[in-house]
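Lab channel / #folding
Pinned by the channel admin:
"Please post every new chain as: sequence first, then the structure tokens as a reply. Keep commentary short and put observations after the output so the thread stays searchable."

First post following the new format, from NK:
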Amino acid sequence: MSQEKRILFGVDESDFARQALAETGRLLRHCENFKMTVFYGTAEPDFSLISESVGQDPGAIEKVRKHWELKAQQIVEQARDTLTQSGFDPGRVSFMLDPKCRVPSDAMLKIAGREGIDTIAVARWGKATLSQQVMGSVTYRLAQLATNLALWVIDPRIRSHNVLVGLVGAPVSRRVVEYTVRYFSHLKQSKFTFMHVTPPIPPQYWDAGEVSDLERHETQEKMALWLKDYTDKVVDIADDAKRRLVGAGIPERNVILKLQPQKIGISRDILLEMEQGDHGILVIGRKGYKAITEFPLGSKANKLLVSGRAFLICLVN
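Reply from TO:
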């Protein structure tokens, strides 16, 4: 577990961003292998328009420019103070200010690629988020474009540091487990719950109506084999996760596997477990079995991202 981990956190001048940054600092402060880059990108004002208001006086325009530069620097300093107050080691933080940034999400993706950072973190809401929006525009754009990275979307009202990991019987769950162990196993006192909601029986096993007893029996046997194979894959992944977490120092009693049939819908069942189980971190794959290339997010991940509140959701590529 000594491998260095790097996170790129995007901030703006909103309280939401500072609160989310503080929560991230508290979450990661006890793990010395974490390093964080805090990025603030802002578009330079149109000084040609400003000159129409203040005239052609170079001194007046320069005063506006200095004020704008000072404000941008103050936001970076506020982010520095926020992390320090959260208990995160200032020596493990670097800051980047882009004063000519027009699209912060694109800038962050470029930085992550250039610096070899595999995780981007942002607040759910930003400075320009309207009250009826479920997330900020930068956050939404990253959710669509950061397909080769892990993305943390943080609601500052995190309930706890207990971790719920959504599993399916697909290869993506192996990557989800690997990421969970790498990025969250420093939470030695947290509870790790690996949850799988069994989906409805596939259509090919539905009752076809007027069939013979033999045909019905054969269908039931096939259905039982399908369910066993599906469940065995999930249990195997969960067993591997438990072994690795315990090896990383998590008490065995704190690692739980929860299998349940779908009740009201897979996404809604997970959200209900998040609330009732006092989980504050949700780790899921971007896509499950249906890796449709036209869509950057699977339907369940999209529903959880849009509907989730009061927790950190981590989308693993």
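NK: The longest strand covers residues 34-41.
TO: also worth noting, The first helix runs from residue 15 to 28.
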